[in-house]
């Protein structure tokens, strides 16, 4: 029954949501650094556990790995921006593999246009935001992987209202980070935007993928 499935998955998703909301309000410097970093990583780390527990087959393992790399990136970025970006980039590559394995067979023109906009627009906006600041070329290379991930998500067979929009939110979150680092956006505003956009994006991605995979294996127990 759908209700039974909801109860079964609730501990992981609810725990992740509680951790993420609490982290957002705790990340004001009052919690000791190492504890806060571990806390941050646990939010998406629990989503990785959810994906591993609820996912099925190779695709289930891939989305769990994507979330695990996201959690590692959340920790790494607090230690070094380059380390975090590298871990996220690896996660994007794994996500691209997942989405290409599950590409839609028919894509209408408007959907293709949106995918190209994500693929090309993400690195282009990054150049406009970051150049000629130090590190703008590395940011652009990262943005290429980010844009490819979002475009692949948009053209995959997974729900665009979950996985597609989740990937777009991830893109927007990173663009906000680029704008903050380039001093084109007030850090205070950026701090209010980055975490909610990023976490909601990850949440939508993992639940969208898992729901589709479970729906195909056990239709009455989908999600």
Short note summarizing the structure:
It contains 8 helices and no strands.
Structural class: mainly alpha
Distance between the termini: 11 Å
What count of domains describes the coordinates?
Answer: 1
Instruction: Name the overall outline.
Output: globular
Can you characterise this structure?
It is a multi-pass membrane protein. Its main location: membrane. Keywords: Membrane, Transmembrane, Transmembrane helix. This is Lysoplasmalogenase. With 223 residues, this protein is mostly helical. The protein has one domain. It has helices at 2-26, 33-54, 57-79, 81-101, 109-130, 136-154, 160-181, 187-217. Helix 6 runs antiparallel to helix 7 (160-181). The longest helix is centred in the C-terminal third of the chain and has 31 residues, at 187-217.
Topology:
Blueprint: H1 2-26, H2 33-54, H3 57-79, H4 81-101, H5 109-130, H6 136-154, H7 160-181, H8 187-217
Q: What brief labels describe this structure?
A:
223 residues; mainly alpha; globular; disordered N terminus
């Amino acid at each position: 029954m759908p209700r039974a499935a909801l109860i079964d998955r609730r501990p992981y998703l609810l725990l992740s949501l509680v951790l993420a909301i609490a982290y957002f309000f705790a990340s004001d410097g009052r919690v000791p650094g190492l504890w806060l970093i571990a806390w941050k990583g646990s939010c998406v780390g629990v989503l990785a556990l959810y994906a591993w527990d609820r996912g099925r087959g190779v695709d289930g393992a891939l989305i769990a790995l994507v979330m695990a790399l996201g959690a590692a990136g959340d920790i790494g970025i607090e230690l070094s921006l380059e380390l975090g970006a590298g871990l996220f980039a690896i996660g994007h590559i794994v996500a691209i593999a997942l989405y290409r394995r599950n590409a839609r067979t028919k894509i209408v023109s408007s959907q293709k246009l949106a995918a190209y906009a994500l693929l090309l627009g993400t690195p282009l906006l990054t150049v406009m935001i970051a150049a000629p600041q130090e590190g703008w070329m590395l940011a652009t290379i990262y943005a290429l992987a980010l844009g490819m991930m979002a475009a692949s998500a948009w053209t995959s067979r997974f729900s665009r209202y979950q996985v597609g929009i989740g990937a777009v939110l991830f893109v927007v979150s990173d663009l906000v980070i680029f704008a903050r680092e380039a001093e084109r956006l007030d850090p205070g505003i950026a701090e209010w935007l980055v975490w909610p956009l990023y976490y909601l994006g990850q949440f939508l991605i993992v639940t969208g993928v898992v729901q589709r995979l479970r729906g195909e294996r056990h239709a009455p127990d989908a999600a």
